[in-house]
Specification:
It is a single chain. This protein is of the alpha/beta class. The chain has 14 helices and 16 strands. The strands form 4 sheets. Strands 4-12-11-10-9-5-8 form a 7-stranded mixed sheet, sandwiched between helices. A hairpin with a 2-residue loop joins strand 13 and strand 14. Helix 2 packs antiparallel against helix 10, helix 11 runs parallel beside helix 14 and helix 13 crosses helix 14. Bound molecules: ligand KE4. Ligand KE4 binds next to helix 4.
């Protein structure tokens, strides 16, 4: 067990100052137990904690660091922007440059507005859909996360047909009632919802590949139903590509699926590790955003010069070097390695992957006793995972200097800096840890 005394002290201090000692709950290790690790630096595929331990980083700041930490091109771009200032609260040409890169990368985006986070992007996209359609209801899916806007912090009502209920104190029943929460990959349920509420539905909001319940891939039938039902009923199809944008393909998950949404939200990679989100789509919708139209949305640091520089350099690097085939090859090796290591340890696991996003879902029982891995297709199946087993796996990897997501219900991300040797090291470490999960 590696000593992390400085982390322990840093956490004690932070807890006296910051709720839970963290500025975002995902970092608190609540889902795996123990204390969060405090970090001091990152370089390439590695993070170094405050005790000087180095880790192979499979969180990548929850997605942004597809080029690894401190990529020279991104650092140079930030330095250059910094040499001229940090924030003007006025338009800059660099924002138009990044807008051109986004529009060129994602054909469904004809116009785009920059904000400072994925939450802001989703909140604004929902407001625009409601403002443009004059309707109030939105549909989201269990296990999909779109940031912490009130209307999106909603759990499924008592049955899928009923409207949402708040899933956080502070979210009012009045807000939650306008959000319908359905099961992902359930085209019939979506059809039913449109039958009951069709012409009151402003938007269907979804992760086009889910990262936030662990990785879940949509079926073609589900995607087809979402696109055709929104089309038929005049609702907006809003793809939340905050995680998948520029991650799964340069044009995001919509490029992989060949499905064209009406609006798309972006975040994470588009800011190159600095605070930047965006929402964009059909010009007839986007032109309804103030000051072109009447739908209000604003932000002091929207399109911040440093974040725009980091995002623009990141997108340029991704476009020029197109790492996606390489990331997919390494991802396939990691997926197969984890799957066979779990099998060798008699553990039923479901390994889901798209490109450089992957989740190993731990399931109860033992293969030798007849348990077999069950497909994870939505929250109903993801939520059956053996989270204790995942937590033991997580900590075992930490002791091997490998930093997987600190929750069973998060996807891992690896970067262009992760080498074949890193992947082999990860598989070997996982095999050792998985073996310790066997009953004594
Ligand atoms: P932010 O407001 O955290 O920038 O973006 C919210 C968001 C929106 N949409 C999707 C698909 C997302 O994955 C996110 C944020 N993802 C989480 C990780 N599951 C961020 C980590 C955190 O909350 O600290």
């Amino acid at each position: 067990m590696t000593a992390r005394l400085r982390s322990h002290e840093a956490f004690a201090r932070a807890q006296r100052l910051i709720p839970g000692g963290v500025n975002s709950p995902a970092r608190a290790f609540g889902a795996v137990g123990g204390e969060p690790i405090f970090f001091q630096s990152g370089l390439g595929q590695h993070l170094t904690d405050v005790d000087g331990h180095r880790y192979l980083d499979y969180i990548g700041s929850w997605g942004p660091m597809i080029l690894g930490h401190r990529h020279p091109r991104v650092v140079a771009a930030i330095d250059e922007a910094l040499s001229r200032g940090t924030s003007y609260g006025a338009p800059t040409e660099a924002e138009s440059g990044l807008a051109e890169q986004i529009i060129e990368a994602v054909p469904s985006i004809e116009k785009v507005r920059m904000v400072s986070s994925g939450t802001e992007a989703a909140m604004s996209g929902v407001r625009l859909a409601r403002g443009a359609t004059g309707r109030e209801l939105i549909i989201k899916f269990a296990g999909n996360y779109h940031g912490h806007a009130d209307s999106l912090l909603v759990a499924a009502g008592s049955s899928a047909a009923t409207l949402g209920v708040p899933n956080s104190p502070g979210v009012t029943a009045g807000t939650a009632k306008d959000t319908l929460v359905l099961e992902y990959n359930d085209p019939a349920g979506l059809e039913e919802a449109f039958k009951s509420h069709g012409d009151a539905i402003a938007a269907v909001l979804m992760e086009p590949v889910v990262g936030n319940m662990g990785l879940v891939v949509p079926t073609p039938e589900f995607l087809k139903a979402a696109r055709s039902l929104t089309e038929k009923h005049g609702s907006v199809l809003l793809f939340d590509e905050v995680m998948t944008g520029f991650r799964l393909a340069y044009g995001g998950a919509q490029e992989l699926h060949g499905v064209t949404p009406d609006l798309t939200t972006l975040g994470k990679i588009v800011g190159g590790g600095l605070p930047l989100g965006a929402y964009g789509g059909r010009a007839d919708l986007m032109d309804q955003v103030l000051p072109a139209g009447k739908v209000f949305q604003a932000g002091t640091l929207s399109g911040n010069p440093l974040a725009v520089a980091a995002g623009s350099a990141t997108l340029a690097e991704l476009k020029e070097h197109s790492p996606y085939a390489d990331l997919d090859r390494r991802g396939r090796r990691l997926e197969e390695g984890l799957r066979s290591a779990a099998e060798a340890a008699d553990l039923p696991v479901w390994v889901a992957r798209v490109g450089s996003m992957l989740t190993i879902f731990f399931q109860p029982g033992w293969l030798a006793d007849g348990a077999s891995p069950q497909p994870v297709t939505g929250w109903k199946t993801a939520s059956l995972s053996d989270t204790d087993r995942y937590a033991r796996f997580f900590w075992g990897l930490i002791d091997h200097g490998i930093y997987f997501p600190c929750s069973q219900f998060e996807a891992l991300f690896f970067s262009t800096r992760h080498t074949d040797a890193d992947i082999e090291q990860t598989i070997a470490a996982a095999a050792e840890v998985l073996h310790t999960l066997r009953p004594a």
